[in-house]
Amino acid sequence: MNISGVILAAGQGTRMKSPLPKVLHNVLGSPMINYAQEAISDLKNKYVVVGHQYKTVTVNLFESFIPILQEEQLGTGHAISILLESSEYKNDENEYLVVIPGDVPLIKKEDLQKLIDDVVQEKAAIGIITAFVDNPYGYGRIVKNNDEFEKIVEETDASESEKQINEINSGIYCIEKTFLEKNIGSLETTNIQKEFYLTDLINIAFQNKLGRVIVQVNEDSIQGVNSMSQLNDVENTLRKQLIESHMENGVYFQDPSSTYIDKSVHIEAGAKILANCHLTGKTIIDKDCVIGPNSIINDSKIGEGSVIQFSVIDEAVIKSNGMIGPYAHLRKGSNLDENVKVGAFAETKNSKIGKGSKVPHLAYVGDAELEEDVNFSAGAITVNYDGKEKHKTEIKKNAFVGSDTMLVAPVTIGEGAMVGAGSVITKDVPPGALGIERNDQKNIEGYMDRKNKKEKK
């Protein structure tokens, strides 16, 4: 069966009160329109009707999706007529067209497939997905005549009795091509909005005694987004489903209600996610890790058995058995080998840290390469920026960098060398040497006695 699909994504979404097109608002780290694209990705030919900020929307389309520009938005019926008249659609040999909104990220592929199957099996002219809801306000109502599906009435056009109907339209259709092409030109703007409603095809099919199919689904799966509040509701629903799927796969969540996770995150069985963690982007968490509490991890890979506490990790790699935090910050380009510790209030950036090395606390490692078993003590920093350019620090294996030390790059600390606490190192330290830079200490005898006597007078 040759079936094409189209996503309606031309609207501005004025109730969002945002300069960003509605369909590009993120849900679990992915633009809403991506959910619609995924829902119809298996169909042969796929189109997206774009309008408001169409260039921005078009950039976010998957490779196989064809944009169709609707310069003036005059309703859903008008959007489909623009598609049918387009040169891109001209040679489409589909037998049915699936229509879905770009702002219904909860739609399930299996529901969409059932709609297609039922319409094809019954040789219907049109089929829609509906749901029964507690509060139907704002949605088109499903009007029946002696249990026969007669029409859809929009909220603004509904009578008081029609507003009491709690079966609503999802905006998702499967329409037989010949019926669609024959009747799309019959749509009129005799409604409050003065728009061409695609829903009017239902009544045309009813008047002509043509088949009409309804597939009823759960209310959540067709929940649309027209405001920031609804965006939050949809994201909460999807997040709950996502976390439940992770738990079914063997991941422990201490407090699912305080965990925020993108759908692109991968977590291996045996990992533990503690309260109030944010896991985003293409983050990968291996088995037996403990993440949190209160940690943010973005686009990073956390190796097996690692522990992350109260820390921020962004575009970093941690191999197995890393110990991070509390209150550490691993910035872009941080690459930690096995058994590395980055402790309290330490920060790393664009640096490789070798197996078994330690940056215990209150330290900064930037644009550096630490080999195996290096100890980078409290208060030590790499001075990597001269005001114009970044420079590299190299610390060879088994070296020891004392507390409150500044390594002014470019500089190399040799294998097994030691840097004395409080030093400002501007020259390379040879292997096995002690590098130290201090002024002579001066003690003033009796100073405090004289100071105290003076204060008493």
Short synopsis of the structure:
This protein has 457 residues and is α/β, with parallel strands linked by helices.
Structural write-up:
With 457 residues, the chain is α/β, with parallel strands linked by helices. It is 19% helix and 29% strand. Strands 14-17-20-23-26-29-32-35-38 form a 9-stranded parallel beta sheet, with no helix packed on it. A 7-stranded mixed beta sheet has the order 5-4-1-6-10-7-11, with helices on both faces. A 7-stranded parallel beta sheet has the order 12-15-18-21-24-27-30, covered by helices on one side. Strand 2 and strand 3 (30-31) form a beta hairpin. The longest helix is centred in the middle third of the chain and has 21 residues, at 228-248.
- What is the first-to-last residue Cα distance? 103 Å
Instruction: Name the CATH superfamily classification of the largest domain.
Output: Spore Coat Polysaccharide Biosynthesis Protein SpsA, Chain A
Strand order of the largest sheet: 14-17-20-23-26-29-32-35-38
Unreliable spans are: none
How is the quaternary structure best described?
single chain
CATH topology of the largest domain: Spore Coat Polysaccharide Biosynthesis Protein SpsA, Chain A
What is the domain total for the residues?
2
Q: What is the overall pLDDT average?
A: 95
Number of helices: 9
- Specify the CATH class of the largest domain: Alpha Beta
Shape: elongated
Helix content: 10-25%
Number of strands: 41
Give the helix/strand class: alpha/beta
- CATH architecture name of the largest domain: Alpha-Beta Complex
